Amino acid sequence: MKAVAYFESLAIDDPRALQDVELPEPVPGPRDLLVEVRAISVNPVDTKVRRNTQPEGGQPKVLGWDVAGVVVGVGSEVSLFKVGDEVFYAGSIARAGGNSERHLVDERIVGRKPRSLSFAEAAALPLTAITAWELLFERLQLVEGQGAGQQLLIVGAAGGVGSIMLQLARQLTKVSVIATASRPETQAWAREHGAHHVIDHSQPLHAELQRAGFASVSHVASLTQTDQHFDQLVEALTPQGRLALIDDPAQPLDVMKLKRKSLSLHWELMFTRSLFETPDMIEQHHLLQRVSQLVDLGVLRTTLGEHFGTINAANLRRAHALLESGKAKGKIVLEGF
Length: 337
Fold this sequence. Notes:
The chain has 337 residues and is of the alpha/beta class. It contains ten helices and 16 strands. The protein has helices spanning 44-52, 119-123, 126-139, 160-172, 184-192, 205-211, 226-236, 272-276, 283-296, 313-325; strands at residues 2-6, 19-22, 32-42, 61-62, 67-74, 86-89, 102-106, 110-112, 151-155, 176-180, 197-199, 217-222, 237-245, 264-267, 304-307, 331-335. The strands form three sheets. Strands 3, 5, 6, 7, 8, 15 and 16 form a seven-stranded mixed β-sheet that branches. The protein has a six-stranded parallel β-sheet with strand order 11-10-9-12-13-14, sandwiched between helices. A three-stranded antiparallel β-sheet has the order 2-1-4, with helices on one face. β9 (151-155), α4 and β10 form a beta-alpha-beta unit. The longest helix has 14 residues, at 126-139. The chain is globular, with a radius of gyration of 20 Å. Its main location: cytoplasm. Belongs to the zinc-containing alcohol dehydrogenase family. Quinone oxidoreductase subfamily. This is Zinc-type alcohol dehydrogenase-like protein. Homotetramer.
């Protein structure tokens, strides 16, 4: 089958950084679905793995953790799906990625594709929706239908995770949603996706929050450059507030700064459940089922930002380069082989 892979960690401007390859057909395990990949999207984790993880034994490593496709085979213990079902999911970082014509995934982390979306539109959602949902409702412990009088500051709100988090927070809670974005086009994007207020993270955050009418915030979702903003986020949080992050800070965070205000710090990695096969792994199936339902009801919409064409090495290199530039808006999607 066709796939896109890499054999060594290289800069994205090197043609060998991602290559078109032919791989053997995958064979499902007991809980696996064999999915015919129709569309994928690209996430920062793809670029991080490519730069930092050398393939073992000279074998090709396939990236890609967002897939929309059709089930074409099932393992002996599969009970949630059948051949012909249209699905979407983010997969497991411990297994081969989805940048291939066919892909194996454990059914417990798969949802039914929203009927109202195309495969490309659906592929934009799984990884970021899971990340945003777990961060909001499990790490920050916001409660659906509640949150009046509370504030959520989303740092870097125009990216893939921010784009769906804005919608979830605005539609499912009563918190005041404050987004940060530094360019006119990303500020407009944040407003379109649900921000009550938009401030500029290239400026001092305290002054920007005051300009928006806030002396402090109860919750912070830091999606990018947490180490650069850390001191300002600690200052912005109310006593006993909550700070959650998803990025990999380049500099260590001094957690002692949280003590005076009794602030709590939370990490979110949506791969944790599948990586450790936790007893509640199936929660990601339920989560994606709920997201699919909310999309079909018109409560949530796709976060597709740009369509980069066919799934091949050249187009994926372009997608990686845009993500590494820090200028992507929404999700980058590719479709078909």
